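Why does residue order matter? Because the sequence determines the fold. Keep that principle in mind as you read this record.
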Amino acid sequence: MKIASTLAFAALLATSAATAQPSAPGELPVVRTTPLPEGPVPAAPDFPAWTSFVNGMRDLWPRMYDKVPPNLRDDPQVRQEVARLILEALAQQTLEAIGADGDHPVFLPHIGQILNIAQPNADTIYRSARITPGGTYRLRGTIGSLPIFKMAQFGPTPDQTGGGINALGYSDFAKLHLDASGRFDVILSPTRPAGSDGDWWQLDPRAGFLLVRQVGSDWAHEKDPTLSIERLDTPVQRPRPDAAELERRLHDLPRRTLNIAAFLVDHADGLRRAGYVNRLKVFDVTNGGALVGQFYYEGAYDLKPDEALIIESKVPNKCTYSSLILTNEIYETTDWYNNLSSLNNSQVHVDKDGMLRVIVSARDPGVPNWLDTAGYPTGAVQGRWTECDSQPIPSVRKVNVASVRDYLPADTPRITAAERDRQIRDRRSALQQRPLW
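Structure:
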């Protein structure tokens, strides 16, 4: 009976979702999706919460269109990318609407390769948890071996990614005590619990949101940490969610989606309007929730297919972490899983004179430090120095990509097409073996 039921369910899924058409031997079948049923919509009682959600979603496109820089609004390619950005924001906020619970919290996916909102760093895994202000929480897990594993506290209304709101405090997991098995156990609360003599972090009584950053550099060899959270001053079992709270979350979803999708959609355009095209400036996020100890620089780029930028900088003597990444015009990070569009301190080649020279171009220049624009002729470059003894702003020059080697040291290694192919495949493999979130 169980086998028959399973087969029937599988058949139902197959016939309701798609129809597989015969194909030639050795080829995958062609799948044609079945359209939605035609005819009148079945009668159902009015459900104001759902109607409000649908109406809000309908208004998302014109509201988002108004936020996109005017020179991009009517580009058919960019329109589809803006639609993707809305879907990314909707997915992120839907997970929050379904899974966030300050009394029974869990660390949820925040931003990253799939939820590519507001320029996630290629080396960082971002996870967030909703908490109830004033609560007492316990964090447990393993420390891993990443250079940076830190947690920020934010206020109770983080409609954005953590970069547009002020951090109330930071905690560094590396400073915790570990037991014989390498595990940490820390209490997070406004005041230290009576009788507690273990690790304790003070929780700002205004905090309603925790953001964890796991920053790696040597992806293939470092070990990511593990982490759990629980609230200690409420019953351990979770009651059935209240209907009014479920309704509020559904009603609020379109607004929150727009807030996060539109957060930095015009940032690259702002750099261009300020005159920072193919040149770099300090990106001051001192009061913007950025990772503590991190210094940013950035600029827009604009390149023809045969042009390249040479970004040149002295490397700090001491540095915990550094990186360079590319974004597109709406501030999605350029796909770093399938393209060489990011570089960090473990991946770059530093020349004998202590200089870092990075090439940004559409064509592979055949040198170690290449950032691939991956089909985006315009976008942004962002760099960061984290816990470094200096924070230089690199110089930039635009050259013909065919003459790049004329501006590099004579002993700059050559990278063949086969070596580049292997490099990107190994890179993708290492990234996929990290947690996605």
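The longest helix spans residues 76-99.
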